Protein 1
Amino acid sequence: MSEARTSLPLWPFIIVDVLFAGLAAILLKFGHHPLTGGEAALMVVCGMIGSASFLLPFLRRNADEQTLSQFKLLADAVSQIQKLDQLAAHISGATNQWLELQTQTGKAAESVKQVAAGMASEAKSFTEFMQRAGESEKAHLRLEVEKLRRSEGERLQVITHILDHVFALSQAARKSGQPGLIEQISHFQNACREAGRRVGLIQIVPPTNEPFDPKQHQLSEGKTAGESATIEDTIIAGYTYQGQLLRRPVVALKE
């Protein structure tokens, strides 16, 4: 607006206004009274020209200001349009980046699927291998357990056989009536029994006069026990191994 005022000076219009106003005043002062038609028309023309010359710069300034305002509005609109274009460019760039990211994400997901499939295949192969190895190991362990059981059974048979012979030797020494022999054989038998206890094998020799119990004792073939029968002697000792009954002792009853 300030540029429009400086581009259109007021002084020429003021001079023109003053001239025509002065001319109208001269006509009014020095003309006929009343004024003739020509004088009146000339006076009106001078007033109109003076008024027009006075109003013209303001009208011109107003028009310039309106034009400048329109130019500014147009410039603002162009600026906003440019900003919209920039925003559209940013949106387009962001969309392209999003599409690129989506593409990369799809590729990454496909890679993850392939890795997962490979891991699943490896896990399946490893599981099958471990199952085969486990079955082989189980079979090997079962074989070893069976070997140990057979070896343990054979060892128990050997130990019980030895203890049976020692028990028979002790019974023979006791029947001989020789105190020295009985004492020596008893010490030897106790030592053998202690060796058996270390591996969990305990020899069972029920005491004399103990009531007969068919769940814990047994008789020789062809023998039967009556009510309130008591044990007179032990013929063959019994055994337990680690708390489990291996053999009930064979006893003789009092008649």
Note: Residues 1-6 have pLDDT under 50 and may be disordered.
Protein 2
Amino acid sequence: MNEWQDVLIHFGRNKGVRLGDLDPQQLRWYQRAWHPRRVNGRISARDKALRDALDLSMGKQPPKTSTP
């Protein structure tokens, strides 16, 4: 995975903005409030990558997922 700072937001008013380019208050909002939604029982790869990057930005390791 790229550095968490390089991951792009892919929706909303910050669409196309790198996490590293957000001001600290905006980044804290995403860290606390944004969680991916399941669609047809699955989380999209882009949503998972963004959540993993947000977790890394807080010093957390993203959960490991098993691949079938």
Note: The longest helix spans residues 45-57.
Protein 3
Amino acid sequence: MPSPPRVLVVSAEPIGERMVGPAIRALELARALTARCEVTLAAPGRTPVDGLARIDAGLSDYDLLLDAARAHDVVVAQLLPPRLLTRVARSPVRLAIDFYNPTVIEVLEGTRSRPSASRNRLRATVRAAATAHLAAADFIACASERQRDLWLGAMALRGLLDPEPEASEPALRSRIDVVPFGIPEQPPQSTAGGGAVLRDRLGIPADHRVLVWGGGIWDWLDAPTAIRATALLPDDVHLVFLGAQRPAMAERDVHRAGAAAVELARELGLEGTRVHFNEGWVPYAERGAWLRGADLGVSAHPDHLETRFAFRTRILDYLWAGLPVVTTRGDELGDRVGREGLGRAVASGDPDAFAAACRDLLADPEPARARVRAVAPELSWRRAVGPLERFCRSGTVRPGTTARDRALRRATLAQYSPIAREALATDGAPFLVRKLGRNLGRAIRRR
């Protein structure tokens, strides 16, 4: 029997007690792959993970990550720095790129409030990085069929659809396939206090009802609609935002929407009485206990491009916890909520419709709860990881072609200019010179 493939999963985000989506994604994919692969998880932080080999390494740990990549058969990553991406792509290791989060679309909304020069630099950086990763990848994972169409279109325009694989497998599923976000196979366990942790921490009476907003209050979401809808509901209905601040918050990763949401709740006289902002971030292992204290899970967003290609992972957490969902439609999971009776999906920017949907579900939640219980088993990480696991075990390598090599070289070189401009603008010339010196030193040492 052949030995299982050795797979290195790389996370740019820290793995620890409190994690955001990209780190959760890397951790859970690594866990799911251990069923049939030998897996190592490389990420910042020293927190041990049961059943997984760990390497404490961030994306800046070039030598450590390159050596680790060369010791494995497959590398799975959402993002690699340009030089590391090139070295991995040109080595015998097979590269799976996880594009579950379409940053080329997200950055359009996330940078709207920035000055035009900064906005253009960041958008150019993200576009160049996405192109380089598409050119380098042996396999691409995405979260939905919509996202798959997006990336296939990008590949077609960049001349990255290889004719040989197309002839043998016209659908190109072995090249790019859907690996959605998942949920644990077992629902959150009830505790002696039921869902009291949420109510006790925030001072919500046990006989009152709770709408929960899981995750952060990002600029491309629409917290005001949920807050205004709460103001239209009876006085015993509360709205709780579980994440008021992103863990390991990067200095420049600031979302103005959080402060705006607090200000709106204050203006409406709801802050701390019926709209609650949990300071910090709920630990990953405790989120089930918090969700158990809610009656409905809610999410809202404007009608824009980010919505079209989004995969709102917080909605999956609601379904895992058995909660009916009220959301605005337009994204993959929001449309599924409406289509399959997992709650209600309403038009964007309509607090009255949002409030009416909450009111209906609070009055009669059981039909939606039954549908949620029926659907949840289909959403497990074990099922979601299937296409990625098949790639890791197949041993297939994307055929090397002159066209691919040229595309990779062009795409990699194209990343350096916007990165350098951003470093010069934000950190100054001395920082840029030091950074270039470090990169040159690495190149010389690795020759």
Note: Residues 196-379 form a domain with the Rossmann fold fold (CATH 3.40.50.2000).
